[in-house]
Amino acid sequence: MGLSAGPVPSRVDACVKAGLLDLVNHAADAGWSPRRAAARLGIDDSRLARWQHRRVQGELTDRVPGGAPLHGLLAAERAAILELFTPWGDIDRSHRKLAHRGSRLDLVHVSESTVLRVLAAEGIALPGNSRRDPVPRTPRPDWLEWKPNRIWAYDFDPLHPGPAGGDRDPGRDPGRGSPGCAADTGHAGVRPGRPSSDGRRRGVPVGVR
């Protein structure tokens, strides 16, 4: 209480405050001044005066830190989150979806983390989405050699319409040079293409790994 352990800590319980006030009052009745008694107890006299005022008001116990912020969550919003969880918890299975569900239903407008925090405080755990089976990767063709300096070419000619809005070569075999079909060539730069009307050969740029 400050008698032998140095100055009184910055935060003490209400019973300690009441005991210190009683000691000061007892010292004042014996002829001591309140300031001298406070100095002997290791506490500032202005602090004792504040405690005395709070004791008269019945507020000697410290309040919860943080006060009451204007953006704090209201009790009605907590109740709305719990009300939202009852019918939609097993359907949405996620605090993120529940938060958006509450906004769409105009029931409660809070963030996703607020929904999770309120449910966790009530001991409610959402099941979450079930794990998906891994999608098997498409195997590479047998002729494809995954080695450096190998050239693969993709022919995107069928994706570009001709002058009349149709395919450039209606009689062309769709199996040759279709999108996604790769060919290993020995040329660097372009893949050999079909002869054009002016006798030149069109080529498609290729990438080198």
Description:
With 209 residues, this protein is mainly alpha-helical. The model is unreliable at 165-209 (pLDDT under 50). The protein has 3 domains: 14-57; 75-121; 138-209, no CATH class. It is elongated and about 105 Å long. The chain is built from 6 helices and 5 strands. It is 36% helix and 7% strand. The longest helix is centred in the middle third of the chain and has 18 residues, at 75-92. Helix 1 (14-29) crosses helix 2 (34-41).
Quickly list its features.
single chain, 209 residues, mainly alpha, three-stranded antiparallel β-sheet, two-stranded antiparallel ribbon, disordered C terminus
Offer a quick outline of the entry:
With 209 residues, the chain is mainly α. The chain contains six helices and five strands; from the N terminus they run ααααααβββββ.
Structural class: mainly alpha
Give the total of beta strands.
5
Strand order of the largest sheet: 2-1-5
Average pLDDT works out at 76
Cα end-to-end separation: 78 Å
Instruction: Round the Cα radius of gyration to an integer and report it.
Output: 40 Å
Overall tally of domains: 3
